[in-house]
Each structure stands twice: as C-alpha cells, then as structure tokens.
Amino acid sequence: MTVYFIGAGPGAADLITVRGARTLAACQVCLYAGSLVPRELLAECPPDARLLDTAQLDLDEITAELLRAHEEGHDVARLHSGDPSVFSAVAEQMRRLDAAGVPYEVVPGVPAFAAAAASLKRELTVPTVGQTVILTRVANRATAMPEGEDLATLGRSGALIVLHLAAKYADRVVEELLPHYGADCPAAVVAYASRPDELIIRGTLDEIAQKVKEAGVLRTAVIMVGRTLGAEQFRDSHLYSPERERHLC
C-alpha cells in the first residue's frame, strides 16, 4: 500500500487539484484533519472507505492508523489543509513512515497564501517593487523559531512577508515590522480564504492589528505585509515586452 499526503487546498472544496481528487477516490482509507478540511471533500472517497478524523489524535495514534492500513493492504489518503510543503506537520509523519518502511507520495495542493493573494486580487511579486516572498510564522509557546528567523531579522529584507498562524499575535507582528516597513506600508489579513465566510481586512501596518481585533479574527488567517500589496506605478514585466527577443525562448 501507499500513503498519499494530499493537499486539500485552502478551504473551498473545489480547490483541490484534479490529481488530489482522483487519488482520494482511489483510497480505501482516509485520514483527514476534521477542523480544517471541508467535509464535502469526503464525498470523493469510495462509498465503503474507512474515514477517520484526526483532529483529536496525536502523532503516535495517527502513525498507528497508517501502519494498520499498511498491514491490511490499503492505500491511504492523508488529507491535509492547504499544501503539504508548508506548515502541514507532514515531516514528522514521513519520518515515522521511513522508519517503518512504508511507502508514501505527496500530492501538492493550493496553499493558503495563494488563495489569500487571489482574494486580494494581487500579484505578490511586482517588477521593481518586490520580487521576494517570505513565508513564516511567529514564535509561540508550542514551537520556538530557529535562530535568525525572528520577524525583526526577516523584516530587514523589506520583502513581502506572509505570516501563517499569526492573527492572534497581530500586535507583536506590527511592533517588530514597523521599524523596517514603516507605518504606511500596506498590510492585509485574509481569514478563511476561499470559503463562504471569507473575511478580508485591508489597511496600513500601523492600523492592521487594531482592525484584526475589531473583526475578532484569531485563527485560520494569513497576514501579509509589503509594498507590493499597494503597488500601482511599476514597470511592465519584461516577459511580454516588445523588446524581448522571443526567438531565444
């Protein structure tokens, strides 16, 4: 059997990839994060599939379920929100499977930051304004940040910063980024991106934390800070320039 780590996308059920949906439909066992994955996606599973919500399970219990399916000869869909490559906690699951000799594959999904950018109708990389995107989070009691990856250090780059799992700490985000980005820097928060209850908050860096508080946003949100969010006057990309020598492509 094979374990398939499948990115379920940011929230809307129809934002799972075609490959993800097809893989889900072929697995007899599905482990899913019930608090984050839309229930509509479970309709893609075979009618007789064993479905298990992992919201209340720890890593040992999840691993035990994966090994049980392996012993029974069943392929497993391990359904994660967003994309497995960032903030998905799949690394420790893969490590356990490697140790047990259980094969697995990864099916990418639409990440939350991409859904948020789509909702904002913004390209995050704009010519001459910003060409770098930093995906990060803030330190909390659960997991400390590695040395050199604190916001004060990352903020020195001036690049667009995308923060996951940080809405609860919006005040701290503003405090650490203000010296590098300035009070007037565009900022935005997108909660529940792509879902029916999606909420978009726009403002400047010095006011975004208060707006987040007033909206009551505490989780399932992406914070973005950077000049590309408000860029209007910028050079056209060389990609479609009439001066580009297209025969060299």
Automatic annotation (TrEMBL):
Keywords: Cobalamin biosynthesis, Methyltransferase, S-adenosyl-L-methionine, Transferase. Its EC number is 2.1.1.133, 2.1.1.271. It comes from the Bacteria. The keyword Transferase applies. Pathway: Cofactor biosynthesis; adenosylcobalamin biosynthesis. GO terms for biological process: cobalamin biosynthetic process; methylation. Transmembrane segments: none annotated. Gene3D superfamilies: Cobalt-precorrin-4 Transmethylase, Domain 1 (3.40.1010.10), Methyltransferase, Cobalt-precorrin-4 Transmethylase, Domain 2 (3.30.950.10). InterPro entries: 4pyrrol_Mease, 4pyrrol_Methylase_sf, 4pyrrole_Mease_sub1, 4pyrrole_Mease_sub2, Cbl_synth_CobM/CibF, Siro_Cobalamin_biosynth, Uropor_MeTrfase_CS. GO terms for molecular function: precorrin-4 C11-methyltransferase activity. Residues 2-209 form the Tetrapyrrole methylase domain. Belongs to the precorrin methyltransferase family. PANTHER family: COBALT-PRECORRIN-4 C(11)-METHYLTRANSFERASE, SIROHEME SYNTHASE-RELATED. This is Precorrin-4/cobalt-precorrin-4 C11-methyltransferase. It comes from Streptomyces griseoloalbus.
